[in-house]
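Structure first, sequence second, as always.
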C-alpha cells in the first residue's frame, strides 16, 4: 500500500522558504527592543507556514522512501519466487530419481527373497508329496500286517 500526501490541501498560500532562508532574514527591532510592526503577524504566519511546508515535504520524502523500499522488497521477493519456481521442479525430479533408485534396489532385494521363498515352497511341496507317499506305504503295510495277524476261519 503506497502512501501519499499529495491529496492533502496546502495550509499556506505563501511561497515556501527553506530553513536557511528563514534564518537569514533580518529582524527589525524598534527602539524599545521589541519587534517592529513591519515584522508582525504576517511574517510569523509565513515562517510558521514555511515550517509546516518543510515538514510536509520531509514527510512526503519519507513516504516516497518507504514506497521505494517496498517496491524494492517486492522485486526481491519476485526474484526469489522466480528462482524458487525454477528450483522446485529440479528438486522434484531429483527426488523422483532417488525414489526410483530406491524402488529398484528394493525390487532386486524382493526378487531374491521371492526366489528363495519359491524354492522353499517347492521343497515343501516335494516333502509333502514324500510324506503322503510314506503315509500311504505305512497304511498299506499296516493293512498287510493286520491281514496276516487275523486267524483264518
Amino acid at each position: 500500500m503506497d502512501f501519499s500526501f499529495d491529496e492533502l490541501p496546502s495550509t499556506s498560500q505563501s511561497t515556501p522558504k527553506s530553513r536557511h532562508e528563514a534564518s537569514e532574514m533580518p529582524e527589525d527591532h524598534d527602539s524599545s527592543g521589541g519587534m517592529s510592526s513591519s515584522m508582525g503577524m504576517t511574517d510569523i504566519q509565513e515562517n510558521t507556514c514555511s515550517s509546516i511546508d518543510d515538514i510536509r515535504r520531509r514527510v512526503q520524502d519519507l513516504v516516497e522512501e518507504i514506497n521505494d523500499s517496498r517496491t524494492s522488497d517486492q522485486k526481491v521477493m519476485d526474484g526469489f519466487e522466480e528462482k524458487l519456481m525454477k528450483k522446485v521442479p529440479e528438486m522434484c525430479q531429483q527426488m523422483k530419481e532417488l525414489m526410483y533408485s530406491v524402488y529398484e534396489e528394493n525390487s532386486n532385494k524382493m526378487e531374491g527373497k521371492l526366489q528363495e521363498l519359491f524354492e522353499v515352497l517347492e521343497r515343501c511341496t516335494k516333502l509333502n508329496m514324500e510324506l503322503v507317499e510314506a503315509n500311504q506305504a505305512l497304511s498299506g503295510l499296516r493293512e498287510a500286517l493286520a491281514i496276516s495277524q487275523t486267524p483264518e476261519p
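Margin note: The CA atoms of residues 128 and 134 lie 10 Å apart.
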